Amino acid sequence: KFTLIDAGIDFNLPIPPLLASGRDIDVIIVCDAATGVKDAPELKKAAEWASQYGKPLPESIDYQQAGSHVCSIFESKDPYTPTIIYLPQIQNTTYDPDFNPEEHMDWDGFLHTFNFTYTKEQAQLIAGLMEHAVCEYADDITRAITRKAEQINTAK
User: Fold this and answer.
1) Residue 68 DSSP one-character state
2) Rounded to an integer, what distance in angstroms lies between the CA atom of residue 15 and that of residue 74?
3) What's the 3-state SS for 76-120?
4) In angstroms, rounded to a whole number, what is the distance separating the alpha carbons of residues 121 and 142?
């Protein structure tokens, strides 16, 4: 079962409802489509929020790596701290060497925050970018989820 949530008030990632008391989330897959993911500023804001409110997130998130790699995984030794699998909306030359989302985020670009109309091709292009990233890193993602499950089982 997957629950999808849109946030975007203090920062553009839906971390607060996921870390609400009683949710006991083990893995959070973040598909960051915010404008400007270099150095993962929205992930950093989410981590600052979590710290401020005493919510668990991995201690050692490398924001520079997160904002420049197609997939980054951040884990904790604490079984009750969720694993973060971070997928930013960045250029992935194995998907399409000519498509760089950043080039389409200005006022005239189809990925601008206030553009609500996409052609079928544009929608397929941007959805395909994230789908390709998940497929390309499926083994790493599966191993991270398996490690978390094993960590939880060991802690019980």
Assistant:
1) T
2) 15
3) CCCCCCCEEEEEECCCCCCCCCCCCHHHHCCCCCCCCCCCCCCCH
4) 30
pLDDT in tens, 103-143: 999 999 999 888 889 999 999 999 999 999 999 999 999 99
Amino acid at 147: R
Residue 50 vs residues 53, 119, 134: alpha-carbon distances, Å: 5, 37, 26
Tokens of 131: 């789908």
Contacts of 124 (CB under 8 A, 6+ apart): none
Query: How confident is the model over 30-53, as pLDDT tens digits?
Result: 999 988 899 999 999 999 999 999
The pLDDT score that the predictor gives to residue 120 is 97
Distance CA 92, CA 130 (A): 9
Instruction: Classify each residue of 113-152 as buried b or exposed e, where b means 16 or more C-beta atoms within 10 Å of its C-beta.
Output: eeeeeeeeeeeebbeebbeebeeebeeebeebbeebeebe
For residue 40, what pLDDT is reported? 96
Residue 43: exposure state from Cβ atoms within 10 A (0-12, 13-18, ≥19): buried
Q: Check residue 126 and give its pLDDT.
A: 95
pTM of full prediction above 0.85:
yes
